[in-house]
Specification:
Blueprint lengths: L2 E9 L5 E8 L4 E5 L6 H16 L7 H10 L7 H22 L15 E9 L2 H13 L4 E6 L30 E3 L1 H19 L4 E5 L6 H10 L7 E3 L9 H8 L4 E3 L10 H5 L5 E2 L9 H13 L3 E4 L7 H13 L3 E5 L5 H6 L5 E3 L2 E3 L12 H5 L11 E3 L4 E2 L2
Helix pairs in contact: 1-3, 2-3, 4-5, 5-6, 6-7
The structure holds D-mannonic acid (CS2) and magnesium ion.
Magnesium ion binds next to loops.
Amino acid sequence: MKITDAKVFVCSPGRNFVTLKVYTDEGVYGLGDATLNGREKAVVSYLEDYILPCIIGRNPYDTEDIWQYLYRGAYWRRGPVTMSAIAAIDMALWDIRAKCAGQPLYNLLGGRTRDRVLVYCHANGTDLPHTLEEVGRYRELGYRAIRVQSGIPGIDHTYGVAPAGTKYEPAIRAGLPDESACWSTEKYLAFMPRLFQAVRDRFGEDLLLLHDGHHRLTPIEAARLGKELEPFHLFWLEDLVQAELQENFRLIRRHTTTPLAVGEVFNTIYDCQQLISEQLIDYIRMTIVHGGGITPVLKTAHFAEMYMVKTGFHGATDLSPVTMGAALHFDTAVHNFGIQEHMPHEPLVDEVFPHAYHYADGYMYPGDAVGFGVDFDEKLAAKYPYQRAYLPVNRKTDGTMWNW
Ligand code: CS2
Ligand code: MG
């Protein structure tokens, strides 16, 4: 079998997505997601201008050699643009392989090790009462695991919380990045124990609770947060610090038993090999699209399994249904699956990307369609062309540039 063509589609049914379609001489095609939120066109160029010409004529079954060729062959390795582009190709080739085998992808990754995939949703409130209301609402929808983000008293606008009456969405369509977010570590740290105390008081011990710090603390501040939240038994605290320095986590780990998750911005095993082998984290969040594809992320998951680190894949709305489909098959197959993030797409996105997976009562199901069970409606997608959109930027209350 041969790869005969490959095309990149950029569409914006409410938000931007970059989708790769790889065609073969046997009429079977595969899909890959190449969406890098706020930097979409850089990945399009990397694919179209540099690497797609190199895969035409190759045998799509050669996923390992093609991945190594794209990773090693560029000389310039790693980074989100490169790895998202390579990921899209790798995903599409696995989709083709599974379709040719007439099997759902999970049967090629180890088969089923579970019947259903535990997911967590996002409860976001503008203040404490609103956040409690949102947690209650998601509990009614059947979610067993809920990520809790709240507006912080004294801070106008923070990560993960939408202005009243709107739905939270990471990237905002605007001329330039939104600068209205502002940050005060002191106010945040003072509020977090009150927030989780209130959630436990209202809903009891049963819910699995998660929280995302979005890279804003220093290691010692993160250690304090983990320690002070211990009585509320969180499922995890995510991205408390920026993670370029893996040693950061030694200090945090020394002080707290609250489980730690990190990795949505990681692109290769080298971003987390120390975190995993020193058992400094409990969940690795690097997922298929930004982690270079199924081929390398499978290796990372197997490496993590040896150290009892579980997967907890990133699943925000900026990852397209193509990634979600592939991730759910992966979650079904790997032994050390932990949890999957689920931030449902708008109905229009689901129309552009019809899929076999579904949510029911706190869990997701990958479906039994061949490949990873996601398709792409090119005609409908063409009605929604790319629109420039940025992630917000964040400053401290005194104007210092900080991590968003
Ligand atoms: C977040 C994301 O889902 C998460 O845990 O950290 O919303 C993240 O901010 C976006 O994916 C950025 O594109
Ligand atoms: Mg996150």
